[in-house]
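From the shared-data thread, chain only:
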Amino acid sequence: MNFRLFFLILCGLLQFQNYNCKIGYDNLINELNSDGVTNIIKNMVIQEIDQTKDNINKNIEPTIVAAGLDPIEQIYSKKGYEEIEMKLCTTNVGYKYEVKNLTGLRGLEIDELVVQEFYLNEKLTKGEGSGYISFVFEKYPIQLKIDGKATGQCSYIKWNPDIDGYIQIINLQGILPFEMVVDTTSVDDPKIEPQVQTIQITYDRIEVDLGDNTLLNYLVEPLTNEILEEMKPAIETVISEGIGGLMQELFELALQD
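Structure, as tokens:
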């Protein structure tokens, strides 16, 4: 119910006592605007947003799969020829590789959904605020496939190993800030319009597993380190853009339930 309407109905019942409704309403708003009513509405907004967390978590796995974000087939590829300091020598290395088949994003789970700031205009009809969504990927491992080939020579030793293995992102998590506009015309049912911002992802490390060939792993470690540094931005971009857009959609849908 509109807060002003509720007040005026109540006020109408008091008019027989010569109560001035307009002055009474204005005085009440002046007294409560900065604290009482603002806190009541803020708590309602926080409660409604807090309830969306379970709705999003319930729907996120099938939604991520349906959106084509698990697996993501094409991530990054490159071929080149450059001087790299290998374990045995510094040599020119030719290489070609492809990073693909990113899996595990469907295990995203919202850890926290927090309102940090909230303000109301003087008429209590519109609010603005901000907060963040924190999320983790603990249900499934975040893995990618790497396929490639390298060629090089150290002194009389020529080598052309296959680069064939898996990449795993350890402890992937993220923060997604959001801003919101809230229509508080109906004080007991605020209408929230969120807008997510740029997602920020972090992880402990990225590991490359090229199988059980210890000698190969030793020899090509400098090359795989180069590859890792080159592909990190591509992996981060794919995850950020995919998850960020999807979270906007899920956030809006959850608030409509």
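Residues 13-19 have pLDDT under 50 and may be disordered.
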